[in-house]
Amino acid sequence: MSMIKFLKIFDKYVIFCLCVPVIILSRLFPAKMGKRKILIIRLWALGDSVVSLPMIRGFRKNYPNAKIDVLAHKRNFEVYYENKDIDRIIEFNIFNLIKLAGKYDICVDTEPFLNFSAILSWWTGAYSIGFNHGLRSRIYSKTVEYNCERHIVQIYLDMLRALGVKFDMKELVKLETTKEERKAVEIFLKKNKISNKDFIVGITPGVSETVQTRIWPLDRMAKVADRIIDKYHAKVIVIGGPDNKEIMDEIIGLMKHKPLTSEGLKLREVFYLIEKCKIYISTNTGPMHIASAQGVKTIGLFGPSAPALWGPYGRKNIAIYHPPKEGCSPCMDTARRKFPDCFNPVYQECMRNITVDEVFNAFEKLKRGK
Q1: pTM higher than 0.90 for the full model?
Q2: Which has fewest Cβ within 10 Å: 38, 124, 185, 346?
Q3: What is the pLDDT of residues 184-216, one digit of tens each?
Q4: Does 3-161 carry CATH code 2.40.440.10?
Q5: Handedness of CA 181, 183, 186, 190 (dihedral sign)
């Protein structure tokens, strides 16, 4: 059993039991809302962190004098670096959690199912906002609906709107990088004989270890990449983290042209590498949202997850999705702890319904600027 799976089970059954006394205490001693110190809880998931940035921008615009902190895990910590809307990023560890006691006026819990994060929002002493499903919802001062027919950006913005604030954003917030990080990427590209005149296309075939059902058949992604190179002489870069190395190696082996990979670059350097791409093709994973945030025309491939909820946010992006006739998709529901395990060539119909021609045609549509 992986550590992540163990922690989810521990939270579901053990931490759940702590919700009842915390609910009682939150009712006996309700928090009053102030405007001086705001905490955003976003404990993991790279993509979820990227799409939380418009909400944080809304807090900064409407509470310009407040101190805004973000509590994040080391897995998603770096998304919040260099963001001028944020005063401090607090790394998730036991010592920092203890220090949060009674320190905030408003706490926003963006985690959709963790009982622990709900209890933590109470621990901060803040007027708290979270989702309205499950026993944990009774801990919060205000709740919003996790509606799978609305985009997650808008759902996060509802947490701000719950405080009576009117605010909206039609695009994601760009991930800023440092001069040193940009220089590292420029050296990387030059070393691999890629210049600013080249037509750079990024692809991400892999996903995180807990959502393997989102993978599009690798032979199809390889065929799309080869067609792009054949027709447009593009420089294709396969982008993924260390956990996706096997998948990246496999797709390289399936291609007739040898692409470049992001191997050797740090995560924040990859942010800028993605920004250098003209078009990005990705499964529903963190780099897809990063590409959208960096203003890159993005194609997202969907099956288990609803594109209405998780599609690449922005007007010039495309989500491709063909649910099976049986109606089993979308079947992945993070808010209700539903993580189906149907990663199998026979059963993964939702992803197999996406064709090579369809993805290539979407690519050409974006290239034409339509």
Answers
A1: yes
A2: 346
A3: 999 999 999 999 999 999 999 998 877 788 999
A4: no
A5: negative
